[in-house]
Every structure is written in structure tokens, then in C-alpha cells.
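Shape matters. Shown next:

___
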Amino acid sequence: MKWKLTTLLIFTGIVCSTGCKKFLTVQPVDKLSGNAFWKTEADAESYISDMYGQFRDKLSSTSFIAASGELRSGQVKMSPETDDPVRRAYIDIAGQNDLLALIAPNAKWNTTNFNFPSMTKWKEFYRVIQSANIMEKELGTRTIQDFSKSDADRYIAEAVFIRCMTYLFLVRLYGDVPYYTEAYLSAPLGRTNMVTVINNCIADLEQRQNDLPWTYKDPSKRAVRATKGGALALLMYMHMWNAGFDPGKKQEHFEKAAALGKELIASRSYKLLPIEEFHNIFKGRSEEGLVEIAQNYNYNETLSLYASFSDMLLHVPFKSGHKFSMGFFRADFLRMLYPDGEQDARRLLWFDQNMMADNGRFMFLKFTNIYAHAGEGGNPDDNVIIFRYAGAILMTAEAMLETGKTEEAVQLLNMVRDRAGAPRFIPSGIDALRQAVYIEQAKELMGEGVYYFDLVRTGRVMDQQWCNSPLTADQFARGGWTWPLAPSVMDNNPLMTLNAYWTN
């Protein structure tokens, strides 16, 4: 079986280097795909596992999670004591939303260990999408040995889930993107309005979500393989994203997100772990996990050294060879989230006495499971969290309050605050509740790669209180929140355009 998978992967690489290079597509080579693969469940299992690996490889191409979801808010600054001030200047450059400088090929951080220009290239994401399209087609039309219809439906649902998650990442990075679900497509494509892309993904995943299991008997698959709970969380987030960009249907999106959240919570398939067990949460595969990308040094499932968010916010004894952290969260931002005198176990567990230092003594201890000792160069090997139960609860609370269900929103907000040992929120008006939910999201999900995207979808990216380098309304409307696209995306495709904000 191994030689068949290797052959198929070589085939995928060949066609993606030709078809994908031209039109983000794969040229049809039916003989190899039909005759040399898709014969056993092991083939399907290997294929889907490689799809997750392709996705992880893209996240490993640079400091992806930090650059896309955290740094652009400007709430992280480069420490004055860093031993690498030239290369680590990217921290402040990203925080100023100066992405053209960030991705400049001759920038010191890009000529050495970092590769921020990879953020402007979407080919790897479209390889994942094309793999999902192929799997959906082949399993939907072929008879596989010892493979029931429910087995095929589950794998197809998992492929659709991965495709929808990938499209969400594409939309959050670039706005309008090419959209297709056809296997072996060879026609050139233009860009589809991002609201339409997300609506299409919602429709696709709604049809397949019930084919996914709530949990797996094998604990090694928990959260790192698609589940019904993960699908509900993804559907919720897609509705919340479109609520920010589709004003005519905003309330409809909020209502659907709230209903999905209630279904997720009512399933009792997931739970909040005690906050003292936070290491287990971020190590991954816990009962709180919904969607994660596996990272494990023992199995060579790792992001590159500089891809980890922890890389810039730790020093000895948690990061070998560095007396000071490369960066820090700004003290005034942290004081807004954690008012003086207010109890919160996260303040004690995720930070040390240098929490408000505004210098290289700062450390963020949230992701500190297995870390490097003297003579080693690794970062903590926590999983990459995409969605987890605490975030889904808060997202449900946000949707509830926007649909007038304030009592339920308060109850959900206090579920997370109770777990953190923080004081309960006392109802004092819709604006105060909205502020409290957002603060809780910022605290609970810090470092998990969603903060900047939440600024964008809620419009807070234009507010100095939340974004240190806010966009103007005009900059936001012109796509200043997106990433630039590499000119190579237009190669041999007369229908393709770049993001105008970064080219004018």
C-alpha cells in the first residue's frame, strides 16, 4: 500500500506543479488515480492523513499563526533586549500593518530563517482543496473492498470539512478567492466574492456534518480528525464571519450560529477542563479540543522552529540560549484585559511576575509543554488549536447576545469565567455584555491565531482601543486587512487579479 500512496503523492505533486501553477487546478490523469489507488480503506486513510499533513506544512512555512492572527494587531512588540534586533524587527513591522515591508525578499528576516513571502502564495492551500475534491469524487463513485456506504460517507464528510476549513483560511487572508469543488478541474478561474465562498462552504458542510462522528474511540484521533463538534464550530465561525460582511443577512447568520452553538453544547460530547490542566488542553487531543493540527516531536509531526508563536515570547528556562524573550504583549493591553486586583487564574498560570514588564523579561507560558533544554533548539510541541470548546462557548455567547438572548449569553460567558476563577459578569446592559464577551475571547484565545481575524469580522480593527495601528474606514473598505498576493498567482490566468489595496 505504501508504494501506491507514494505514487499518488508524486502524481499530485506533478499535476500541481503544472495544472496548479497555471490555474490552481489539477489536470485529469484518470488512469493513475483510478487504477492504482482507492482500492482499500487503508488507501483512503493514508490519503486523508496526507491532506492534514499538507495543511500543517503550509502553516509551517513561516510564523503563520502569529503573523496572520496575532502580530498585525500591534499588541505584541519587539523587546528592547532581544539578541536579534535586525531579524526580529518583523514583530513591529507586522504590527504596523506594513506588509509590503514584511514580505520584502531582501528583508533580513526573509533571507535567513523566516519566509513571510509564503503568506502571499495560496498554491499549497489549493493543493489541499484539490485533494479534497478528488477524494469526494472518487469515494462517491467507486466501490472499495470492505468499505460500507457509511464509511465512504464519513471520509467524504471529512474531505468536505478540510476543504471548508481551507477556504476559511483563504478568505481570512485574501478576501475574495477562486472557489471550486470539481475534481481535476482544468479551466482558469477568477475570484469569487468571499461572502459567496463562505455561504457555499456552509451549504456543503451542512449536508455532510451528520456523517461525522461526535467522538472517536481511538483517543489519538480526538480533535486532530474531523468530528461533528468540529464541523459545528466551523459552521458557527463561518456564519460569524459572514455576519460581519453581509449586512442584509447579519441577523440570520447570528441566529444560525447561536443554534449551532446550542446543539454543540447540548451534545455533551466535549467539556471544559479545569484551568489547572491547561497543559493538557494545548498538548492536544483533550476533551476540550474541537479542531487541532497535530504536532508531536516523537512522530516528526512538527512545525518548523520559527513557526511557533512561542518562539518569540519565551526565554530560559523555557527556550534554550535566549536570556530574554524576542517580544512581549503590551502592558496597557494586558491591563485592559486583566484589571488590577481582579482575580483570574489565567493571569497566574499563563504569565509570571514579569507580565507587565514591557521588555524581554516577559514570558507567555500558555504553550509550554515539552520545551528545549540546554543545547537543544526546539520550541514547545503543543498542537495548533483551530477551535476548542471554550472558544465555541464564547462564540455562542456572542451570537446569543446579538439575537437578544442576553440571559443565555451571560450564562455562557460565566461558564468560561467560572472555569478561570474570574468574577462572574453581572448584567448591566447590552453594550457592557458585548464588551465583556469580547474581552473574554481576547483573554481565553490569546496566542491561538484568531485575535486579528476577530478584529476584522467585528470591525474593531478600526478601533484604537483594540488595534494598536487601526485601519481607517476607507482602508478597511479597500481591503487593508487582507494580505498581498504574489504576482505569480496570475501566471497564465487572464481572469486573476491581485489585492488592489497592496498594488495601488
Notes: Residues 1-32, 372-376 have pLDDT under 50 and may be disordered. The domain at 226-455 is CATH 1.25.40.390 (Serine Threonine Protein Phosphatase 5, Tetratricopeptide repeat).
